[in-house]
Amino acid sequence: MKNDAALEQCDREYKQLNDFLSQRTERAMQLFSDAYHFTQRESEILILIAVYGLSNREVAEQCLISEKTVKNHLANMMKKIDSRSIRKLLSLFINHVILHTKENRST
Predict the structure, then answer these.
(1) Run of H or E residues at 68
(2) What's a single GO MF annotation on this record (predicted)?
(3) In CA terms, which of 27, 28, 32, 59 is 20 to 30 Å from 100?
C-alpha cells in the first residue's frame, strides 16, 4: 500500500515536471521544428520521445497510429537533419532547446 502511494506520487511529480518543461521550452521546440521543416506529427512524436521518454509503442498508442508509422516519422526526421541516429536527433533537439532557453534569459 505504502509503495503504491509513493509510486503514484512519483508519477504525478514526474508528469508535472514534464508539463512544466514542455511549457517553458515550447517556443524553442517550435523554432527547432520550423528550422528542420518537421511536420506537426513529427514534432509531436519528437516531444513525446524527448520530453516524456515514451517508447515507439507508447507513442503509437498515444497518437493512435501504428508503431511502423512512428518509425517512419522518426526516419523522416533523421533524414531532415542528415543523420541516421535517433541519439543525434535527440542531442540536436536538446542542445537547441537549452541554447534557446539560455538566450531568452539573457535578453
Answers:
(1) helix 67-80
(2) DNA binding
(3) 59
- CA-closest candidate to residue 45, choices 28, 30, 31, 62: 62
| pLDDT tens-digit map of 45-86 | 998 998 888 999 999 999 999 999 999 999 999 999 999 999
Half-sphere exposure of 6 (CA within 13 A, CB side): 3
Strand runs (DSSP E) across the chain, as ranges? none
Q: What percent of the chain has pLDDT over 90?
A: 51
Residue 65 grid cell: 497510429
- In angstroms, the CA 87 to CA 47 distance is 14
Burial (CB count within 10 angstroms: exposed 0-12, middle 13-18, buried 19+), residue 9: exposed
Reading the block at residue 62, the C-alpha cell is: 498515444
Q: Could you state, in order of their start, the residue ranges of all structural domains in the chain?
A: 2-106
pTM of the model: 0.75
